[in-house]
Write a structure and sequence with these properties.
Layout (H helix, E strand, L loop, with lengths): L1 H6 L3 H11 L2 H19 L4 H6 L5 E2 L1 E4 L4 H5 L10 E2 L8 H10 L9 E6 L5 E7 L1 H5 L17 E5 L9 H12 L3 E5 L21 H13 L5 E6 L1 H13 L5 E7 L5 H8 L3 H20 L1 H7 L2 H6 L3 H12 L5 H8 L12 E6 L12 H6 L3 E6 L8 E2 L5 E2 H14 L9 E2 L12 E5 L5 E5 L15 E3 L6 E3 L5 E2 L4 E4 L5 E5 L8 E4 L6 H17 L3 H36 L1
Parallel strand pairs: 6-7, 6-8, 8-9, 9-10, 10-11
Antiparallel strand pairs: 1-3, 2-11, 4-5, 5-7, 12-13, 14-17, 15-16, 17-18, 18-19, 20-21, 21-22
Family: Belongs to the AB hydrolase superfamily. AB hydrolase 4 family.
Protein name: Serine aminopeptidase S33 domain-containing protein
Keywords: Membrane, Transmembrane, Transmembrane helix
């Protein structure tokens, strides 16, 4: 009877009674466990993965051209770039790395010396200097500037969006390089660093004119000092775009781009994709609105102030402000024009690019792998972790990995022969050309032709490419072996076979027109065949064997039908002699 009464009770009532028997503390522990699992995945932590590997980190991936002298002479000597990056154990998340840099940073004390730089349009830029003497013995003496005959290297720093010389990551880099004996100067953007906007011009992600003027000023004032530049975040986009616009006509001898957005349109789509990315979008928009409010008197007159106040994202701000100030139709047009990706192929100075694959702001989808690989002057270093400009390492998180990498790279570059010799360049017709630049090549038959550096055949074509050097005047390009030169006036070269080859300059930066005088003989048929054979032999070591195999297969039916007739005739002659 008791069993019958127990079974007649509702199962839900039984479950409720059992639930009341469980202590509340157990429910609280279970809730904490589920919350920790959710947060672990939401902020993309990788503590457990690092724990299983003993916090050794993952190796740095380097992308470069197979003929890259920059890697052979500089990057190969940098232990940091050829090693591993291991995050601080309690910051094993791209979001923790990025947030810790923003709110804590642990930046060293830097006693800057300010210099006001006036621009031709009436704008004002604050140049904050940090010298080696300021790091070793800070003082409050009046800043007299760097001596014009000082040969110490100068490093120009271009900050990120709404950042200035007081930002933590800027101080980490400036302090490290000043301690090395370098003179560091931070070029604050217009309206930042405590300086008012004194013209109707504002900076943006694609504005390179201010950087150009500052570089020209530094080179004029300190002509004997090698000039290096480091761009950070949006500053990296400005730097790469500037280097692509200038080509060989820049005073910069080496540069580094850290956490560049590369393609602003892709990053705009990415930053609105997930909830955690929208937090960054909102935070950046708040920073931009704060910048606009500092200069409300000018901004409200030139842009849509009501739209700026209501902006809740970076795109909203750019629609109401940046697009209007740049006189562009749409925000996407601004993003396309301001992105530096299309300028990478024209970078002619040694450039180190560092990006994190888990960057929560500048997505890995925008990294131009192929463009960087095609340019001999660029080495792209990517890490699995690091966040956006974070890269904290060590148990105490007092140092940034990318600061050590830039330090080693620039010091090795400064002591190398790359900055003391003529710049190795490639010939481009315009910024819109493909990433596959033409080279001048002298073939075995003596003809001068244009040779394309196909990425698929990089390794096999190393011995056939003829790198070219640009002299100081930029008027002629000579081959390494001295067998060919391109001058502004048309010249005539004679190859070993007596053929004349005429080279004409188009009068611009485009590739020279090559007019080859053909010979009206049998060589007109042989030369194309030899050219095809050379191209096949460059592709791989087995190309000739494949060609021979194809030749045998295709000619076998003819040989098979002709061989019986040949042997039959031979046998008939033999028997006729015996008779």
């Amino acid at each position: 009877m008791d069993c019958f009464e127990l079974s007649s009770e509702s199962p839900y009532e039984l479950l409720l009674k059992v639930a009341f028997l469980i202590p509340i503390s157990h429910y609280f522990l279970g809730f904490l466990f589920l919350l920790s699992v959710f947060l672990y995945n939401f902020i993309e932590m990788y503590f457990i993965q690092e724990l299983f590997t003993g916090f050794r980190g993952k190796p740095v991936s380097l992308t470069f051209n197979s003929c890259c002298d920059l890697y052979q002479e500089v990057v190969s000597k940098c232990k940091t770039l050829n090693g591993r990056f291991s995050s601080t154990p309690w910051l094993c998340s791209p979001h923790l790395q990025t947030a810790f840099l923003q709110f804590f940073g642990r930046a060293p004390a830097c006693s800057y010396r300010r210099q006001i730089f006036q621009l031709s349009d009436g704008g004002t830029i604050a140049l904050d200097w940090l010298r080696n003497i300021d790091v070793k013995k800070p003082s409050i003496e009046r800043f007299d500037g760097v001596q014009s005959d000082d040969k110490s290297p100068i490093m120009l720093v271009i900050p990120g969006l709404t950042s200035d010389s007081d930002s933590a990551y800027i101080k980490h880099l400036a302090f490290k390089m000043a301690k090395r004996g370098w003179n560091v100067v931070v070029s604050n953007h217009r309206g930042l660093g405590g300086v008012s906007v004194t013209s109707d011009c504002f900076y943006n992600a694609g504005w390179t004119e201010d950087t150009r003027r500052v570089i020209d000023h530094l080179h004029t004032q300190y002509p004997q000092a090698p000039l290096f530049t480091v761009g950070l975040s949006i500053g990296a986009n400005v730097l790469v775009k500037y280097l692509g616009e200038e080509g060989v006509n820049t005073a910069i001898v080496g540069a580094a781009a850290i956490c560049s957005p590369w393609d602003l349109l892709i990053c705009d789509r990415y930053i609105n994709r997930r909830l955690v990315q929208r937090v960054y979008d909102r935070a950046l928009a708040i920073g931009l609105k704060g910048y606009a409010k500092l200069h409300q008197t000018v901004m409200s007159r030139l842009a849509d102030w009501e739209g700026i106040v209501k902006a809740r994202s970076v795109r909203d701000f750019d629609h109401s402000s940046t697009r209007v100030l740049a006189d562009l139709e749409t925000v996407d047009t601004y993003y396309r024009k301001a992105s530096c990706t299309s300028y990478i192929g024209n970078v002619m100075v040694p450039l180190l690019c560092v990006s994190a694959l888990d960057d929560p702001v500048c997505t890995r989808e925008a990294i131009p792998w192929d463009e960087c690989r095609a340019n001999k002057n660029i080495v792209l270093a990517t890490t699995h972790h690091g966040g956006h400009l974070g890269y904290f390492e060590g148990m105490t998180a007092k140092s940034l990995w990318w600061v050590r990498a830039v330090d080693e790279f620039l010091c090795a570059l400064n002591s190398s022969s790359l900055i003391h010799s003529k710049k190795v360049t490639t010939v481009h017709s315009s910024l819109e050309t493909s990433i596959d630049p033409p080279y001048v090549n002298i073939r075995e038959d003596g003809l001068v032709t244009a040779f394309s550096n196909d990425p698929s055949g990089e390794v096999g074509s190393q011995q056939n490419e003829q790198p070219v050097e640009d002299d100081k005047a930029g008027d002629r390009i000579r081959g390494v072996n001295g067998a060919i030169q391109l001058e502004t006036n048309a010249t005539t070269q004679f190859d070993p076979r007596g053929e004349s080859t005429r080279l004409e300059d188009s009068g611009s930066r485009g590739p020279a027109k090559m007019l080859v005088t053909p010979e009206p003989d049998f060589d007109a048929v042989i030369v194309p065949v030899k050219r095809c054979l050379n191209q096949l032999s460059r592709r791989s070591k087995i190309s000739m064997w494949v060609l021979a195999y194809i030749a045998i297969i295709t000619t076998w039916p003819i040989l098979g039908s002709a061989s019986p007739m040949f042997f039959k005739k031979k046998l008939r002659n033999i028997f006729s002699l015996k008779r």
